[in-house]
Amino acid sequence: MYNLQKVILSLFSCKNISIMKKIKIGLIEFTNCLPLNYSFERQNLDDIEFVYGTPAKLNKLMDRGEIVAASISSFEYLQNKNKYTLIKSGCISSDGECGSVLLFSNKKFEDLTGCKIGTPCDSVSSVAMLKILLEEYGVNLNIPKQKWFSEMRSGSEDFSFVPNLRKSELIKGSEISENRNTNLHPTYYKTEFVEHDYGKTPQQFFDSGFNAVLFIGDNALKTNRIFPKPFFVYDLGTLWKEVTGLPAVFGVWAVKRDWAKKNPEKFEQLNNLIAKAIETGLGTYFNKVLNKASCNLGIEKDIIKKYLTSKIKYNFTQQHEKSVEIFNQLYGKLKQKEFSDLKKREMLEDALNF
Fold it and tell me: How far apart are CA 238 and CA 35, in angstroms?
């Protein structure tokens, strides 16, 4: 604990105020960040101001320059790498099961093409990761799912030029819409992502037309305790591990790049500060962290302990860095496919209307 206090006092001592003044650091208000937050809060420093919020809120504050450093979404970092410098002493990740990034669904994961999916308003990394995983499992996100009926002169059906769909998907339950220029009749219905604010239970989302809904953080932890198991629950940490063989990195620590360039020594001290805070939060303060988390969530301490020590991982290793890069590559691939699929659809519609 004294080592942590020494690092913090070195970073935020009075002689540095002329350079940094009152530095603002963003902290996520989720249980998986509580070990770190609790360590910071015990110091009671006048020269530092903590700004609390969801990942989405902190992303915006960092982007606007209203805070200098924060645990931000890994996706936010990747989208704005030119603005940020990565702090490699900590992250929020899971090496397999996460427990708090969960997709509740009334369909199997691979059968969600053309479905309505709820995505949380407080996250961007998990939403981007969900879309990547859906594509990797064969769910078509970008071309609206199409159902067709064809009457060829030979009396047979020809689906050879209809992209990415099985014949059974093309003909079952089709709504036939007349097209006067062709004997093919397409009906479109697309995979839809709708943002939500946790105002309903998963069952209520299903009852209102959703097929799946993504919950993250404490909302996921609490909901999973009461969610009826006849439905499907998919852990994105588990799915990411299956697809990539790497840990899922949901959040990273970063600072504004300009600040890091102007204050290299302070950047290194901040790097050490975060490492020490993680160590202290999982060590000296851990029992108090468990008590607070259990009280806040209404979940048994044994479950919280397993969550914070076995599922959530805080150290940023080479494997985590590689996973972040894979995240970037797969999202780039997703966007390229989105553009390609749009062009295919336009070509197909032009051919039908010729």
Answer: 23
Q: What is the pLDDT of residues 72-88, one digit of tens each?
A: 999 999 999 999 999 99
CA distance 147 to 113: 12
Does the domain formed by 101-144+190-246+334-352 have CATH 3.40.50.800? no
Single-letter amino acid, residue 160: S
Cα 111 to Cα 293: distance, rounded to the nearest angstrom? 36
* CA 44 centroid distance within chain: 32
Domain ranges of the chain: 2-94+248-316, 101-144+190-246+334-352
| Contacts with 350 (C-beta within 8 Å, 6 or more apart), sequence order | none
Q: Is residue 201 within 8 Å of 118, Cβ to Cβ? A: no
Residue type, 223: T
- Residues 200-210 pLDDT 10s: 999 999 999 99
Query: What homologous superfamily is domain 2-94+248-316 in, according to CATH?
Result: Periplasmic binding protein-like II (3.40.190.10)
Q: Are strands 69-73 and 116-120 parallel, antiparallel or unpaired?
A: unpaired
Q: Which among 23, 77, 75 is positioned nearest to 254, based on CA atoms? A: 77
